[in-house]
Amino acid sequence: MENLYNTLVAFSIHQKSIGYCQALNFVAALLLIHMSPEEAFSLLDTIVDDILPEGYYASPYLIGAQADQYVFAQLIKKNLPKLAQHFKNLKVPLSLVCLQWFMCLYINVLPPMTMIRVIDTFFFEGSKVLFRVGLALLKRNMNKLLQEDTFGGVYSVLLVIGQDEHNPDSLMEESFANHLLRRSQLAK
After folding, report:
1. Are 98 and 136 in contact (CB under 8 A)?
2. Do the beta carbons of residue 123 and residue 51 sit within 8 Å?
3. Which pTM value belongs to this model?
4. CB 151 within 8 A of CB 84
5. pLDDT for 22-52, tens place per residue?
6. What gap in Å lies between CA 82 and CA 16, rounded to an integer?
7. How many whole angstroms from its chain centre is CA 14?
């Protein structure tokens, strides 16, 4: 715990525009499992400065993360239109759950082996993996989500999405399936 505390304090001093952001606890803790506090600090800084869009964790508005949520909503409309309409009909603010997915890099959503695969792919492919995995999770759970006819029902399904994803190969294959999301869609 001391290493986590020290890493986050050092990061908040180094990144004054961000300071402390609760989502970074998950990211820093995962990094500290695999490396020294100095390496974890450096990699956390790289994630924020070089991999994620600017302002992702910056207070008070999390502009980068909010922009990604807008893009994600548009990708859902394009790739999963029936589900997007269902969310609209029930007035489900998808960012209520999906913002956490993105900001925590799915660390608190997926089982350990699957989460590690997503993180590895995130380091290799960049932040577009967050969109790919999110769309795959929604697609894989679309029938459950469409069966729910209330905001609360949809929300309860969204809260547990990913917990049963014990096959990282299957999720990543779905995430990179051509029919789900093309590179050209992410470049726009």
Report:
1. no
2. yes
3. 0.91
4. no
5. 899 999 999 999 999 999 999 999 999 999 9
6. 42
7. 24
Answer yes or no: is pLDDT of 187 > 70: no
Conformation bin of residue 162: beta by default, left when phi > 0, alpha when psi is -120 to 50: left
Task: Name the residue with higher pLDDT: 180 or 73.
Answer: 73
Q: Which of 122, 115, 128, 118 is nearest to 163 (CA)?
A: 115
Task: For residues 155 and 149, give the distance between their C-alpha atoms in angstroms, rounded to a whole number.
Answer: 11
Q: Is the Cβ–Cβ distance between 37 and 2 less than 8 Å?
A: no
Taking Cα atoms as reference points, which of 68, 163, 176 lies closest to residue 121? 176
Ramachandran angles phi, psi of 116, nearest 5°: -60, -40
Q: Residue 184 — φ and ψ, nearest 5°?
A: -60, -30
Q: Within 10 Å of residue 173's Cβ, how many Cβ atoms?
A: 11
Cβ-based burial of 9 (10 A; exposed 0-12, middle 13-18, buried ≥19): exposed
Q: Dmax of the chain from CA atoms?
A: 48
* CA neighbor of 170 nearest in space, from 123, 131, 113, 120: 113
* Mean per-residue pLDDT of the chain: 92
Q: What is the pLDDT of residues 51-72, one digit of tens each?
A: 999 889 987 789 999 999 999 9
Query: What's the DSSP call for residue 53?
Result: P
